[in-house]
Specification:
The chain has helices at residues 3-16, 20-37, 49-54, 56-73, 76-88, 90-96, 139-147, 174-180, 268-291, 310-316, 323-327, 382-386; strands at 115-122, 151-155, 183-185, 192-195, 199-203, 224-231, 237-244, 297-302, 321-322, 345-350, 354-360, 371-376. By secondary structure, it is of the alpha+beta class. It has 2 domains: 3-96, no CATH class; 106-386, Endonuclease/exonuclease/phosphatase (Deoxyribonuclease I, Chain A, 4-Layer Sandwich). It has a 6-stranded mixed beta sheet. Helix 2 runs antiparallel to helix 4 (56-73). It is globular. The protein starts with a helix and ends with a helix.
């Protein structure tokens, strides 16, 4: 056998070889698929599941990096394994990173009065507990006023028992706020609304006066939910639900906003374990309230968890649609502190509504960015529309 023939055979065997690299790739691929579907497991039954959900996007990025390496090295078994894992995880990838384009966007109604622009925003008490922000007009409120939504649903709209409209950083903007939004609900619980349309409101959870000074109910959860029934000009019945689920309440540095429930040990793992369990309880309570709500519904809030998580799946159920998933583009994280770039704020909807466009706005001084979605409020049901 000539040396050239021997070299060719050796190269062929090397290309066909299923070696250590392929085994490592296979293990990573299996972990990625498991992370993609871990949201279907209740964290109260299996503690690692929510951590796997949080690890999903880093695992996807790792798979993409390995795919590039495998193509460069011509490790075709590895390429096949990675492509299979990404295909098996595709629905979860789309939940995290919607791939909408202008070509598949629904048509805008000719009459602008048939549109409703809704914003959800955790405003971190307008930084009331951070003195450096109280010496000038609130950048967070400026962001809201510049975006000009029809309805703004706030979480953490109050701090230290001070209602947001009495905060020093908001006083210079008070005239603009009241002129733009004549209908306002504000209370110490932190779920507030600014609206261009009148509404009737009611709590969907234990009232604030029954809570501890830190805002916890008797189950030591900081879950909040409130309904607003809008009175729209066309007579359409529409309920908005604002919510905030249990926070991790982990302390990063010396932030005055970091709170730890008395029932939680100071161990970060214990805080997270308990938070995952409490959010499961919160999600079931919210889901029950949504089941009892009118058909036309928009649900906004700080979920404190990522898309495809267990609480995301419980809240969304079989009848709600993820507005950002329908019309948003890209990863669009909403939490912006401590390098934890996750979309933990959500807008869901159902009924005779259609999401038309979505924005993740950047700015303000909160630890969250707002989501804003424009809806067609004079349409057939979303399900009928998408099946056309």
């Amino acid at each position: 056998m000539s040396s050239s023939t021997y070299d060719r055979n050796r190269r062929r065997k090397k290309k066909r070889r299923f070696g250590v690299f392929e085994i490592i790739v296979a293990v990573i691929a299996i972990i990625t698929i498991a992370c993609a579907h871990a949201g279907g497991i209740d964290p109260r039954n299996f503690f690692p599941a929510p951590f796997m959900v949080l690890a999903f996007m880093p695992m996807v990025l790792l798979c993409l990096a390995l795919l590039v390496v495998s193509l460069f090295w011509r490790r075709w078994w590895s390429v096949l394994i990675i492509l299979v894992s990404l295909l098996a995880s595709l629905s979860t990838i789309k939940t995290f990173v919607p791939m909408n384009t202008s070509e598949n966007a629904p048509p805008m109604p000719a009459d602008s009065t048939l549109q409703l622009k809704v914003m959800t925003y955790n405003v971190l008490g307008f930084n009331y507990n951070e003195p450096e922000y109280n010496n000038k007009p609130s950048e967070t409120m400026r962001l809201i006023l510049d975006a000009n939504p029809d309805v703004v649903l706030l979480q953490e709209g109050t701090a230290s028992g001070v209602e947001w409209k009495d905060m020093p950083s908001l006083i210079p903007l008070k005239g603009k706020i009241e002129a733009r939004y004549p209908y306002i609900y504000s209370s110490g619980e932190g779920l507030n609304i600014m609206s261009k349309y009148p509404f009737v409101t009611q709590p969907l959870c234990e009232p604030q006066h029954a809570r501890s000074p830190l805002g916890y109910n008797r189950d030591q959860s900081s879950y909040l939910a409130r309904a607003y029934d809008l009175q729209l000009p066309n007579g359409k019945q529409l309920r908005l639900v604002d919510f905030r689920l249990q926070s991790y309440h982990l302390s990063f540095g010396k932030s005055m906003n970091a709170r730890v429930s008395p029932a939680v040990k100071l161990s970060p793992i214990e805080c997270m374990r308990r938070s995952f369990a409490l959010r499961g309880d919160n999600a079931e309570a919210l889901r029950k309230a949504l089941d009892e709500s009118p058909a036309n519904l928009i649900v906004c809030g700080d979920m404190n968890d990522v898309p495809s998580s267990h609480v995301y799946r419980v809240i969304r159920g079989d009848d709600l649609y993820d507005a950002w998933g329908d019309v948003g583009r890209g990863y669009a994280y909403t939490y912006n502190r401590h390098r934890l770039k996750f979309r933990i704020d959500q807008i869901f909807y159902r009924g005779a509504l259609q999401a038309l466009s979505g924005e993740r706005l950047v700015g303000g001084s909160s630890d969250h960015y707002p989501l804003m979605v424009t809806f067609d409020i004079d349409t057939k049901s979303h399900r009928d529309y998408t099946n056309e």
